[in-house]
Amino acid sequence: MNLTTQTTFQPSHDETTGRSKVSDNSLTATKSFCVQRFSGEIDMQTAPDFAAALDRVLTQGPECVVLDLSGVGFVGASGLSILARFASDAAAQHMPVAVVCRRSVARPIEACQLDEMVSLHTSVDEAGSALAGHRLAS
């Protein structure tokens, strides 16, 4: 099965007014956050696409990232390895990462202890709220 991706960068600062802008998810930030959506399966065949999408996110440098894997039915070992590298690279940039996923995807993430590097959530709104709280505490 193919992997499809969609990236949305949402600035939280209005350049024209100089004021903070509230996003669709009612988050405010000094920079921006990214919602990267995936659907399909993440396996050996689609791992290069998964890695490329995550690399694009890192190069944009958002303040925080929500990886929406709610449309993903399977994550194989190659996908978990790429997710671990991404989480490590994001942590090095002080970029918190939240993952939205179903239980079938959360289980292998937890089994690999990647939930110590990323927070797991059941909805984008929940993940966004958690990241907003992280920004306030930082």
UniProtKB/TrEMBL annotation:
Residues 1-23 are annotated as: Disordered. Residues 12-22 have a biased composition (Basic and acidic residues). CDD domains: STAS_anti-anti-sigma_factors. Residues 23-131 form the STAS domain. Residues 1-11 have a biased composition (Polar residues). PROSITE patterns: STAS. Pfam families: STAS (PF01740). Belongs to the anti-sigma-factor antagonist family. PANTHER family: ANTI-SIGMA FACTOR ANTAGONIST TM_1081-RELATED, ANTI-SIGMA FACTOR ANTAGONIST TM_1081-RELATED-RELATED. This is Anti-sigma factor antagonist. It comes from Gordonia sesuvii. The lineage of its organism: Bacteria, Bacillati, Actinomycetota, Actinomycetes, Mycobacteriales.
